[in-house]
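User: Hey, my collaborator sent me this sequence without any context and asked if I could get a structure. I don't really work with proteins. Can you help?
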Amino acid sequence: MESKIRFLNKIKILEECTKDEQKIVGKFFTSSIAKKNDIIFKQGDGGRCLYIVKKGLIASYTYLADGREMDVARYSSGMFFGETALTEALPRTMTCHALSDVELLKLDFIDFYRIVWTYPEIGVKILKAMIRYVILGLRDADKFLTTMALWGEKARFRAITDELTGLYNKRFFEESLELVIIKSKQKKSTFSLIMFDIDDFHTVNENLGMQTGDEILKNVALCIKSVCGENTVIARLGGDEFAILLPDLSITDTLQIAKKFKEVLLQVKLKIGLTSTLINPQITASIGIAEFPDHGETSVVLKEAVDKALYSSKKAGKNKIMCAQSLM
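Assistant: No problem. I've predicted the 3D structure and written it out in structure-token form, which is a compact way to encode the shape of the chain:
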């Protein structure tokens, strides 16, 4: 492990991470060995892992539409390849093979997501460095720079965060929910799911403008982060709709978090100076809660349960917390 940590300290993809953060990342990598001329993966293959070269040399090439083979890049010690597998479940776009005996470190996409769940700051640092060095390291930049720049934007906005609030986005939430369900079934444990909308948010945009609405959304994000633990997955699904995954938490514990959130949320109006032009001069939210597996054992059923609870909260007059089938 110590030799692995020393090696990780030299990798550009981790250059923004502290030594303690590098040690955390090191726990998620696994090692593998390939012989000279071995194919690591072929163009068109599946696979959801990133590779870092520890020793040796890797070559990559792609086949053009006319059947010609085009050399793309060389990867030596400390360099990485296969990075799009972490963010996109798409076939490999290149073939990579060993030009010598090589030692590799592998990071599976599930383990990368685990890093992001527990240590979101590390995940963001890795992605930023990844985007930067993918672009800078291209051998044939004039042909690939535009494509990779577009991928970089796509990865940054789709893979992890919502641009406005800094929370996770809908796509990441959906994948996280599926993985948490799998993990909870394996552990035979429970977890809770919260969904909430900001009450009368359309009135904010109509009367005070979208800029004020955006400020409210950003402050709401800060409020919910202030009451949730580091293992939670907090996402903005779109508009004023938010969702929170709370691994290993019962609905009873989750209810206390929701109540605390309601209290903190009332302070938002003081920060941005809302006026009496709003129907409700205070910022409030309608909240729905569901628990796995009692309210659903699949993502579809669980989301339906929490969505019905949220709808019931709105129907009951808003600014309320509703558990699936129970008023709280």
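In plain terms: The first helix runs from residue 2 to 8. You can pass these tokens on to your collaborator as they are.
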